[in-house]
């Protein structure tokens, strides 16, 4: 068929679908109206129910009427909600009913079928689908591959079809703007257009242009561990958000968004991605950073923040100690240590009352170890609690005889007496009985905090226990394997102890601390969580991941990372994969590599990949742009001037421009210098700030996962970025740029660019 005729025919089809959507919208609106009226009527009737409370049967009748009304109300509310959800879907479909069509022949069928694919399903009659949800099994064919024999997964097993047509549409305001017929996986033309767009403060869904390998990630159901290793900008985050949406659809009725947890690198990133799922018509999953996850459980401790972690300089001993503490071996050692606590060495705290020891730690220890040897730690804890409460109750009668209680009873005011008596009869056989009654009440009240302390495990000395674990570590693992001597280790533990006195704990320490606490208290973790996603997994260590697995014992894990972007864990990230592979059943582990980078222009991707020593595997998507610029200036002021000039140029062409400094101090210094020149920018100081439109200045460790139209790297000189340690950091920040990239340097630019071919960037000396 000629192109024009195809377009006309498709336009007619589109109009038909739009008409049906409009009709469905009217029906949904009517249902909403009816439900609303019904609710008003029922509320009116409820008000009219005659309250008859004079007789028992009257009361029963009244109660029954209320109950019946309530049931009717619930029913109407449900149908209202249902209709409102449906209407919201129809409104989304009305904007853009579908984006693709596939024609295929099933085995044995004589005629091909056509299916249109959109953001949600739509049928005009039962089982007559005008649009299929992009997550429906058949829609997978669209993302899978070329024309011809294609197989796709269904709940009852794989199916094969002969795909004869794959067509993409761009639709605007009810009109088909363009049609592409393609036999490639989702056509480059459409992807090129999607990638050429400007960035914004919110990430967008990639549903119309999901690539084949991404589709594989999205639809994986078999594996307990899905590890996605991909270059910067290869769509790991984008794919994984689509995966959440897909899982919610695939397991609808069995899986809700509250059973899905996503660990993100920082709060800014949370904010950046929080529109993707709602755009797809789904509720957001639980989103948090590891810091938030850990910190909310230990409100009394200050866990090292991202900025502190980034700024902490590490000597050799510290690095080695970290290597030991973050290893899977140490995770296992912590488990062994906890088991042994069932026999000895548990640390306790006195329970205090009025400034004196009320139950001594020795007494608690005696109770704790009085149970049978094969008691698990959790049972031992519960048993001890029970005994402590019994002991407390026992102490009530003795305490009632103390002087302070007598004095207290004598001095009770009338109001206090009223409260103590409450509704109880005030007739007592004797004064003594009355005294006892009041004394008991007073003691019970005074013991309330003790009861709470017992129930909240305040008699456990977790700080002491954690330090003890560290102290005995040389017996649990061989220090020499981590290049440590006994003296070095002891010094490290002393340093940790000092920190703990000031209520400070490192990012590594907190996980060990929590794991130990969970083992002692016999916590089993959150069994209701079914899927856990960890983005930027290269910044996690094996211990943390093992802990997450322990905390979410029934969850399947999807881990996304780029070992080249490890900015906290440095060289350790290489061993992460190795250690990880021992944690999951190899039969149920899948590793997917994404090598194509979609975010940046070809020029930017080529430049950034050569910052890495082994970046060759990274493949640029063929989208043209300007060469990155490197501008060296003799002085700080000169460098700020060149930055301002570049910034003004970028601001004319783009919406989102970011200036990325190495540390927070660098960023602050630049912010002030720009302010003095009257250049307005927003400085992002902490991860709790929001991303705003316009130009922002952001320190490197907060730029993770984000992207901007244009990026200016502030002062990438040879002092700021010199060691190989900083190679991955520089790669990470440069790869945030979609369309333009400039590096400025006060003095000579970093030697980390030495192996970037000279024709891949423009060097300017000012
Ligand atoms: N299939 C696709 N269709 C359209 N755009 C895509 C596709 N895949 C990725 N992108 C776009 O490429 C950019 C980078 O994607 P994303 O942020 O998910 O990459 P990433 O692998 O998580 O990157 P990084 O590790 O650098 O944070 C985003 O703008 C995303 O929308």
Blueprint of the fold:
Elements: H1 3-48, H2 56-95, E1 100-106, E2 113-118, E3 122-125, E4 128-133, H3 140-144, E5 148-154, E6 157-172, E7 175-181, H4 188-196, H5 212-218, E8 225-230, H6 236-250, E9 260-263, H7 267-273, H8 276-279, E10 286-288, H9 290-295, E11 302-303, H10 306-311, H11 316-325, H12 328-340, E12 351-353, E13 356-359, H13 361-368, H14 377-400, H15 403-410, H16 414-421, H17 431-455, H18 462-476, H19 486-501, E14 504-505, H20 507-521, E15 531-534, H21 542-551, E16 556-561, H22 573-581, E17 589-594, E18 596-597, H23 602-609, E19 619-620, E20 629-633, H24 636-653, E21 656-661, H25 664-676, E22 682-683, E23 694-699, E24 708-713, H26 727-734, E25 737-746, E26 762-765
Parallel strand pairs: 2-4, 8-16, 8-17, 9-10, 9-15, 11-14, 15-16, 18-19, 20-25, 20-26, 21-23, 21-24, 22-23, 24-25
Antiparallel strand pairs: 1-2, 1-6, 3-4, 5-6, 6-7, 12-13
The protein binds adenosine-5'-triphosphate.
The site of adenosine-5'-triphosphate has 23 residues, from helix 4 and helix 6.
Average pLDDT level: 89
Distance between the termini: 60 Å
Please tell me the CATH architecture of the largest domain by its name. 3-Layer(aba) Sandwich
Number of helices: 26
Find the structural class using helix and strand composition.
Answer: alpha/beta
Number of domains: 5
How would you describe the shape?
A: globular
| CATH topology-level name of the largest domain | Rossmann fold
Strand content: 15-25%
The CATH superfamily of the largest domain bears the name P-loop containing nucleotide triphosphate hydrolases
